[in-house]
Amino acid sequence: MTIGEGPSGRSRGGKVRVKTARKRSTSSTRWLERHLNDPYVAAARAAGYRSRSAFKLKELDTQFNLLAGIDRVVDLGAAPGGWCQVVLEHRPRARIVGIDLLPIEPIPGVVLFEKDILDDDSEAMIKAALGGLADLVMSDMAANTVGHKQTDHLRTMGLIEAGLDMATRLLRPGGDFVAKVLAGGGDSTLTSALKKAFATVKHVKPPASRKGSSEWYVVAQGFKGLALGSPAPSSLADEHAEPPPA
Predict the structure, then answer these.
(1) Contact present, 73 and 85 (Cβ < 8 Å)
(2) Per the residue annotation, which of 180, 196, 202, 205 is the catalytic one?
(3) Crossing angle between the packed helical segments 188-197 and 149-170, to the nearest 10 degrees
(4) Are both 112 and 26 inside the same structural domain?
(5) Rounded-to-integer distance, Cα 6 and Cα 113, Å
(6) What total of structural domains would you count in the chain?
(7) CA triplet 221, 106, 218: central angle to 5 degrees?
(8) 87: domain CATH number?
(9) Do residues 68 and 175 make contact, with C-beta atoms less than 8 angstroms apart?
(10) Are residues 75 and 30 in the same domain?
C-alpha cells in the first residue's frame, strides 16, 4: 500500500507502518502512522463522521446528557463539522449554527458561517440564524500554533476565553457550555469566569481524546444568565468529575 510519498505496510500485529519519505519528516511520519492506526479514525470513517472528534462529543453527551431536549445549538470552531453532525443525529429538528475561519462543506440542516468569531458582526449573525437564545454552546477551537509551547498555550486559552464571552451572550439561563481547554498554567482567569457564570463546572478527558494530548474539556452547566463582568451571585457550586488540569 502506498501512502503519500512513501510505501507503507502492515506488521504482523495488523498495524500500518509508514516509511519515512524523502520530503516527510520523522515526526510527520510518526503522526501519520498513529493516525492510520487510530481506532477512532476508522470508526469515524465507518460512521460517516467528518472527524474523530465526533466521538469526544458523543462521550461527553453520555456522561453529561448535553444533547437531550436541546433546540438551539452553536458550534464555535465548527470545521470540519463533526460536532454538528453528532448534534443533528441526536436532534434532527434542532436549529444548529456553526462558525469557523476555515471553510466547511455544507451540512443539510445546519447554518454555517466562514467567519472569525471575533468579528464585530459575528454575534449578531449567529443570533439571527438561531432565532432565539441557545441551549448549548460548544467550542472545539484551538489557535494556530507557532511552535513555542507557552505562546501556543496562551493563544489558545485566549481564544477559549473569547468563546466563553460569546457564550454568555448567546445562552439562555440554564444552558450549557462545553469547550476544549489545555492542561497547564494560564487558565485561572477562565476557570474563575466559568465558576461565576455557571452552576457547575467540571473538567474531563473523554476516552476519544488521545492520551498524549494536553487537551481536556470543560463542561459548564446551568448558566446563571450573567454576562462576563456582571456581579457574582452569593453562592457558587464548583464540582469536578476529574481534578482540573494543572
Answers:
(1) no
(2) 180
(3) 10
(4) no
(5) 37
(6) 2
(7) 20
(8) 3.40.50.150
(9) no
(10) no
Q: Is the peptide bond before 80 cis (omega within 30 degrees of 0)?
A: yes
Q: Which residues touch 121 (CB under 8 Å, ≥6 apart)?
A: none
Of the candidates 107, 97, 98, 95, which has an alpha carbon nearest to the alpha carbon of residue 71? 95
CA distance linking residue 97 with residue 53, whole number of Å: 18
Q: Tell me the residue type at 235.
A: S
Please give the mean pLDDT across all residues of the chain. Answer: 80
Is it the case that residue 2 has pLDDT exceeding 60? no
Helix, strand or coil for residue 216? strand
| Alpha-helical segments (H) within the chain | 26-36, 39-47, 54-64, 82-90, 122-130, 149-170, 188-197
Report, as an integer, the average pLDDT of 203-214.
86
Fill in the amino acid letter for 39.
P
Contacts of 70 (CB under 8 A, 6+ apart): 87, 91, 94, 135, 136
Closest CA to 79 of 100, 49, 48, 57: 100
180 assigned to active site: yes
Q: Sorting pLDDT into bands at 50, 70 and 90, what band is 15?
A: low
pLDDT of residue 23: 57
Residue 237: inside a domain: no
Collapsing DSSP to helix, strand or coil, 209 comes out as coil
* Residues 74 and 180 occupy one common structural domain: yes
Match 455544507 to its residue by C-alpha cell: 106
